[in-house]
C-alpha cells in the first residue's frame, strides 16, 4: 500500500500562467503537482526563458487579479498572472487628467 503523501504528490492539477506586454500576451496551461506554488508555476511555464527581460523578483504575482505571495500554493483552475512594474503612478496620472479636464472646461489652454 502506498503512503498517503506519495499519492498526494503524484496528483496533478491544471493551472494557467499569464504574462502580458503592451504588444503581446501569453497564456499557458500547465499540469503541475499538488502543492506547487505560484512562483514554481511561473518557473515551470518557461516564460522566464521566453521573456529574458522578465525579472520575477521585481514583478508581483496574482491569481485572478488579486496579488498573492509567490509561495501561495495553487489550486485546480488557478490562473497565475505576472504583473509588470508600473512605469507611472496611476494616482498621479488620474490627477493630471483631471487637472487638464478642468482647464478645458474653463476654456483655458
Task: Explain the overall architecture.
The chain has helices spanning 4-10, 38-45, 47-50, 90-106, and strands spanning 12-21, 24-33, 60-63, 66-68, 79-83. Helix content is 33%, strand content 29%. Residues 1-5 have low confidence and may be disordered. The chain is an alpha+beta fold. The protein has one domain (4-106): Ubiquitin-like (UB roll), CATH 3.10.20.90.
Name the descriptors:
elongated; 4 helices; single chain; disordered N terminus; 29% strand; Ubiquitin-like (UB roll); five-stranded mixed beta sheet; 5 strands; 109 residues; alpha+beta
Annotated CATH architecture: Roll
Briefly note the CATH topology name.
Answer: Ubiquitin-like (UB roll)
Give the strand tally: 5
Proportion of beta-strand residues: 25-35%
Q: For the report, how would you describe the main beta sheet?
A: 5 strands, mixed
Question: Mind telling me the CATH superfamily name?
Answer: Phosphatidylinositol 3-kinase Catalytic Subunit, Chain A, domain 1
In percent, how helical is the residue content?
25-40%
Overall tally of domains: 1
Shape: elongated
Classification by helices and strands: alpha+beta
Order of helices and strands: HEEHHEEEH
> At the first level of CATH, what is the class?
Alpha Beta
Task: Provide the residue-averaged pLDDT.
Answer: 86
The separation of the N and C termini measures: 80 Å
**How many helices?**
4
Amino acid at each position: 500500500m502506498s503512503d498517503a503523501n506519495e499519492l498526494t504528490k503524484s496528483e496533478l492539477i491544471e493551472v494557467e500562467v499569464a504574462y502580458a506586454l503592451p504588444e503581446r500576451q501569453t497564456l499557458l496551461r500547465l499540469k503541475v503537482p499538488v502543492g506547487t506554488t505560484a512562483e514554481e508555476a511561473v518557473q515551470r511555464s518557461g516564460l522566464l526563458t521566453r521573456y529574458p527581460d522578465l525579472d520575477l523578483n521585481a514583478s508581483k504575482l496574482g491569481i485572478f487579479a488579486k496579488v498573492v505571495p509567490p509561495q501561495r500554493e495553487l489550486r485546480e483552475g488557478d490562473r497565475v498572472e505576472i504583473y509588470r512594474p508600473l512605469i507611472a503612478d496611476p494616482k498621479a496620472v488620474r490627477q493630471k487628467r483631471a487637472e487638464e479636464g478642468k482647464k478645458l472646461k474653463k476654456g483655458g489652454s
